[in-house]
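To: structure desk
From: M.T.
Subject: fold request, one chain
Message: Could you run this one when you get a chance? Sequence is below, nothing fancy, just the single chain.
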Amino acid sequence: MSLIKRIKHRFNSFQISTKITLGYAACFAMLLLIINAVAWVGVMNALFDPAENALNRSMIRVAQVLENLNANHDSLHADLLENELSLGVVLRVVTDDGVVVVDTDKDYPSNEDFNSGILAEQPSFAEDYLEVSQFKNALIYRGTMYFKPDDDDGATLYFFKTITSELKTFNELENILIGLDVFGMIFALFVGYFLSRKTLTPIKEMNEVAREIVFENMDGRIPISDAKDELTKLGTTLNEMLDRLQKPIKSQQKFVSYASHELRTPATVFLGYVELLENGGADDPEFLKEAMEALRSEANNLQKLLETISFLSRYDQSRLKLDKETLDLDEIVGDVMRKMKISVKTHTIELLNNTPAKIFGDATAVQQMIRVFLENAVKYTPAGGNVKVNSVRDGDKVLLSIADSGIGIAPENQQKIFERYFRVSNQNYKAQGSGLGLAMAKAIADLHDVEILVDSELGKGTTFTLVIPVATGD
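Reply: Done. Structure tokens follow.
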């Protein structure tokens, strides 16, 4: 494995907080390096450029003077050259035989002292034609120019300019910058660690809550702070997702508990009658008839339960397919009522009014919805009671009401009756059925934009009113 791959693998194994800290420190270090580099360049320019410019101007002016006096060099004197020098520039003229004929500053370091301090490596900002020497705590520039009259000995002109008179201060500045870099790196690591821990704390809390949440218990929720940042939005989204997941999971748990209870009854009946029939009950014609009727009834109930569960399952998964078309509502109501009158002998079933109207929907589903309300009315009405159905037109709606004289529904339960597995009961009446019928009817109503109104009073009965939209053009 290459070095880069090993480093990358090692970095990927770090915690997110460590990655953020290192990344923050790296960015801060890069910023410090750029700032220091810019400061260094600025200082170097401030030190070297003025000295170079001063030397260049002085050398050019002196060269012009010497050129003008080339024919009459006997008139050359020190004051004439010194007047052409820029401020701070020192001129020393040495003949070929080593005699110093001009020296504008006798206290300035000698050529020998300058030569002994020449830097081995020329500073990057220094021009190539200039020499740089360190003398004690100072850096000095030296430019050289040779002058030789036509009929006389030549001389070398040395131009000196101090770059910085206090090299110690320059070195101290360098040490200060390095110290600031080290302090900046430590500070960046500390701040990066603090910020990463503070930023990632909500994520750790989310992880802890997620570990506590299991399929059997999804009541835990991620704590939401008052901040309006991305993590708060993420926590809110996760809580909303948990709310959406918890509802079907609770429904599934309730269904498993309910199904195990409801299926136990027909299974017990089936096994009981089978054992009795095997033990000689089949020889008794009356018992055989009773057994067949009981088994048929339980089978019908079981089939109806499975159909309801299948319907609601497909509805939950948005796999329910309806074959909608224009229907005659009065024909559907009449057909359902005729079948109810034939099958129900313990109650009075009346159709008061059946207004002709066309609706748009699935015929089987609409029949099933109306049948559920009728069966529910019979179920919660004692024997001898009555169920009345009435259908009237109200503008672009049809109001189909199913009224019974049953036990009624308490106000606090009137919205719960459409919840799955909820069954109305009181001290005089034990709940029957699966608790899924009205849930299925509500699902069908929603698929057909039908509004359900409930009007009920305990001990006086219940009236369900289906507000059904008529078909366009009717």
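Reply (cont.): DSSP finds ten helices and twelve strands in the chain. Let me know if you need anything else for the meeting.
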